[in-house]
Amino acid sequence: MPFAGAAARIDSTVNGVRLGTITYSFRDLPRTPGKDNVDDLIKALTACGIGEIELYSPNIEPAPASAARPAASGPAYGVAAGPRPAPSADQIAQRKADRESLRQWRINTPASYYQATRAKFEAAGISVFAYTLGFNPDFTDDEIEAGFLQAKALGVDLIATSTTVSVAQRVAPFADKHKMRVAVHGYAKILDPNQFGSPESFSKALAMSPYMRVNLDIGHFTAANYDAVAYIKANHEIITHLHIKDRRTKDGVNEPFGDGDTPIKPVMVLLRDNKWPIRAFVEYEYPGMGTSVEEVKKCLDYLKASLV
To answer: Can you list the pairs that 185-191 forms with residues at least 24 positions away whose Cβ atoms lie under 8 Å?
Structure first.
C-alpha cells in the first residue's frame, strides 16, 4: 500500500512489461562519508522516468571514509586505467574499521529510518520492488537477521543477493523464519562450485528453502554460454526479475545494448507475449561515454523499442 502523501506513480511499464533498474547502475553519483545518496538517486531515477527499482543497499547506507567522491564531471564509466596499487597498511586498517562500523550500523539502525527512506521514494512516485543486499561470508548471523528486518521496514518481500552457495545455506533459514523471498543472482563463474550462475547451481538454491528464487542476469547467463530464452521459458515461475545487460559469450565483455550476444530483444518479447510478472531491470555496466543518467536512458530506450 502506498505511503501517505505519495505522488502519482511514475509509469515505466511498456506493453505490460514492467521496466526499471537496479540502482547500482547509478554508482557514479557523489558520495559523502557518513551519508546516503538517496536524494541524488531519486533525481536520477526521475530524470530517467523510472517507476520501479531494485534498491542497492549502499545507496541508503552511510558511505565509508574511503568512498568520498565528488559529482562526476566526465564519463561515468570508462576503460579501466590499469591495476590498482596494493593498499597500504593504513588503508587496510581503515577498510576493516569501515566494515565493522557498517555492520553495527545495520544491526542498530531503527526501522523508522528505512520507513522514512521508502517514503521518500513513494513521494517521488517510485516503487521499491526489491532490496539488494550482498550476503558475504563475513556477515554475522545478527547482520543477516538485520537485513531481513531492513527489507520489511522498506515494505518489500524480496531480497536480491549476489552471494555464494555456502552463504546462501546460512541465509535460507532466515528466509523461512521471516517468510521472505530471497533471489540469488548469478555470474559467469560457472567453474567454481560455490558460485551461482549455472542452471544446476540455481537448482541448489531452490532446494534450500521454498522462499528461494532466481534473479536472472541474462548478460552473465549468456557469457556463461547458456540460453536465457530457454531458461526463462522453463523456469519463469521461480524468476522474480531480470538484470538486463549485453555481454559477449565465452565470458566476454559488457557491450552497449545491441552490440553483444545477449538475446535482449527475444527476452523482452517473451515477457510481453506471455504476460509474466517478471520485472526487466537495467543494470548499466558497459564503458559508457555519458553520465549514468544518459546511459541508463539509452538502455531503457532500447528495451522500449524491443517491446513495440
So the answer is: 185/160, 185/161, 185/215, 185/217, 185/243, 186/214, 186/215, 186/216, 186/217, 186/220, 186/221, 186/224, 187/162, 187/217, 187/220, 187/224, 188/220, 188/221, 188/223, 188/224, 188/247, 188/251, 190/224
Taking only Cα atoms into account, the Rg of the chain, rounded to an integer number of angstroms, comes to 19
Identify whether the C-beta of residue 31 lies closer than 8 Å to the C-beta of residue 37: yes
> 195: which DSSP letter?
B
The closest of 203, 186, 207, 182 to 195, measured between CA atoms, is 186
- On whether the pTM is more than 0.90, the answer is yes
Work out the mean pLDDT of the chain and round it to a whole number: 93
| Ordered domains of the chain (ranges, CATH) | 13-74+92-306 (3.20.20.150)
Supply 114's cell numbers: 528505512
Instruction: Determine the residue type at 175.
Output: A
**What pLDDT is recorded for position 79?**
43
Give me 245's grid cell. Answer: 545487460
SS3 state at 143: helix
**pLDDT value of position 85:** 85
